[in-house]
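REQUEST FORM: STRUCTURE PREDICTION
Request ID: SP-0412
Submitted by: Lab K.M.
Chain count: 1
Length (residues): 340
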Amino acid sequence: MAYRFFSFLLFIATITSVQAQEDNLVPNPGFEERDDCDPNYGELDDAPPWKSPTMATPNVFHECTIVNDNPCPYPESQVLDPWIVGVPTNGPGCQSPHSGMGYGGFIPYAPSESDWLDWSEYLETQLLEPLIAGEVYHIRFYLSLAERSSRAISSIHVLLSPDNIEEYSATNTTLPILPSLANDIQTYIDDKDEWTLLQWEFIANGDEQYLYIGNFTSNEDTPSINAIPSDVIDEGHYENMAYYYIDDVYVGQTPLSIWQEENTEFALFPNPVENNLKITGKNIEQVVIYNGLGKLVKQVLLPFPMNSVDVKTEGLSSGIYYCLLQLDNGEIIKKKILKR
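STATUS: Completed
RESULT:
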């Protein structure tokens, strides 16, 4: 039989609003608090405790610098003095904050043939308190691709570390570190009008207290797509590079909004699971399991639609996994499992 291939957008959803969470461990999550509102500055450390862990220069934008009376669409010139770090109009484009009066901005992709010569920017902050071992945390933030970006990527990552990575302060390229969480499932973040939500679940090892956001895949190995038609790219665009706005960063224990398990016709047990997972339901055609990094770790193709499936899980490491059940009518049932 022919199996339908599906691409599940595991960690991304676009929504219109989010409420501030009292248990957010991220200080200054919306880049609202500013040390200075110099309209010609706007580097990330102007919104402490956010800073760059490398010599690259991510930005912070805010209404306190200046507000253009007629902000959109973004102007033809990149030279917007003094609006270059304003809101909503600024050098990279035009975007209103997801909430509040400000947001951050960074370049996660600028290969050697781009304007910025193999450049990669990261955002760093220290959490209000270390994570607790074994606890489940939820990480989320919003991104919007800037209008001047000619490329869009999917490789946006999160690193949660017990240590400050000070040894990379002299570099401006990709950090040679394996991230904790990844959006590497080829779902390109290319919306320039609305904010796109990225979110994950994470089981803490304990003592993680530094948060890093960026692209930990080298520019050479990062897939990208056109975000501006090639026949209209000119000197007013950021050629062959991606620039993203970021807002409302959250690390805490409020549940994810994207992962809901309302369908009670399908059961996965035992859960938590050790070596063997039993799945029951109706007309299951395929079972796909992703790990916490969004990587495919197991795929079971069935010879015909079945109402019961056994999946071996002894080779999987401990952690949270996301199980997708594809039915013979194309419907996808989403479930979450914990592997001991």
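NOTES: Residues 1-21 have pLDDT under 50 and may be disordered.
Reviewed by: T.R.
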